[in-house]
Every structure is written in C-alpha cells, then in structure tokens.
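Researcher: We plan to redesign the surface later, but first we want a full-length starting point. Tokens attached.
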C-alpha cells in the first residue's frame, strides 16, 4: 500500500469509518493538534534520553500511546455518545496527577519558558497541549466528546509545566520569573 492515496488532493480526508470531511473542519483540527502534540513529545523523548530526569521516559511513552488513542477517538464521526475512548481511563489522569505531585515545587510567580533543552521542549508541549484542549472544547460544542478526553489533556499540560520546572531543577538551572515592568 502506498502512503499517498490521491483522495485528499481536493482538501478532504476520511474519518474512521470512511466519512469524508474537509481537512479544516473542527474535528480534523482537534485530532490534528493531538498529532502535532505527539510529534513534539517525540522530540522531547529524544532530549530526555540525554538528560537525567529519572524514569520519566516510561511515562512519556505511555502518554504518546494515550494520545494515539485520543486521536483515534476524535477521528470517529462522533454520532454515538456511548463510544468509549479505548485505552484511556481515570487511572491515566491519576497517574499524571501523581507524577505532577512528585515533581512539583513551590510556585512563586509566572515563569518564563526556557532553561535547559528538556525544559524548553516541555514548554512547547505544554502550549500545544493547551491548544489541543481549546480545539477539543470547540469540537465538544458541535458533537459529544467524552469528558475524560478534556480532563486528560488539561492534566497533561500541567504535567509538562511541572516537568519543565523539574528538568531545570535537576540540572540546577534557576527559574526566570516574569517581571511586569521589563
């Protein structure tokens, strides 16, 4: 089977199940942003292999798989509110919360993105996760979206914020705080 099918040359794509939609529809924007987030996480995983951040690479691998599940769910036609999000449950949200709690440091103000390479890439992942969340909220105004999807993506952006701070702390890189008058 070839990678190119020629079926999308006129600006449409197929959802899971075969329904054709415009490539700029709300649903495609939502699962496309999840795909983009997963690609950024892949880059983060490469950086993590060369950084002392503990066993976080296993968590990253699990997150990438969960995002594929979410992308597949969002790529369905959305007419059946009983369709589950395969491979995603409340325990996945709790795992993110546990990891956040284990890494969290006191929050003293708004922190400028940057520091080490891992931290900077975590911030990119955080912002793309926030955009994915906004796209999914928009989609949820049109069709049913399982609340667990929004909960997971919301917690995921918090995870990346905390991991960014943890990566800098692990490498003894001080945080740079936003100052209003500069």
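Model: Full-length starting sequence:
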């Amino acid at each position: 089977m070839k990678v190119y099918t020629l079926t999308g040359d006129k600006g449409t794509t197929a959802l899971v199940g075969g329904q054709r939609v415009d490539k700029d529809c709300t649903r495609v924007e939502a699962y496309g942003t999840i795909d983009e987030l997963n690609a950024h996480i892949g880059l983060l995983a490469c950086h993590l292999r060369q950084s002392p951040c503990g066993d976080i690479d296993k968590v990253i691998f699990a997150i990438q798989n969960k995002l594929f599940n979410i992308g597949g769910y969002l790529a369905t036609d959305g007419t059946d509110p009983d369709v589950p999000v395969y491979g995603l449950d409340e325990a996945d949200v709790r795992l993110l919360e546990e990891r956040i709690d284990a890494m969290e440091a006191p929050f003293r103000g708004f922190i400028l993105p940057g520091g080490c390479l891992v931290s900077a890439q975590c911030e990119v992942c955080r912002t793309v996760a926030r955009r994915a969340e906004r796209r999914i909220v928009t989609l949820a105004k049109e069709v049913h979206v399982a609340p667990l999807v929004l909960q997971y993506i919301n917690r995921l952006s918090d995870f990346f914020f905390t991991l960014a701070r943890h990566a800098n702390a692990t490498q003894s890189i001080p945080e740079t705080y936003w100052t209003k008058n500069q």
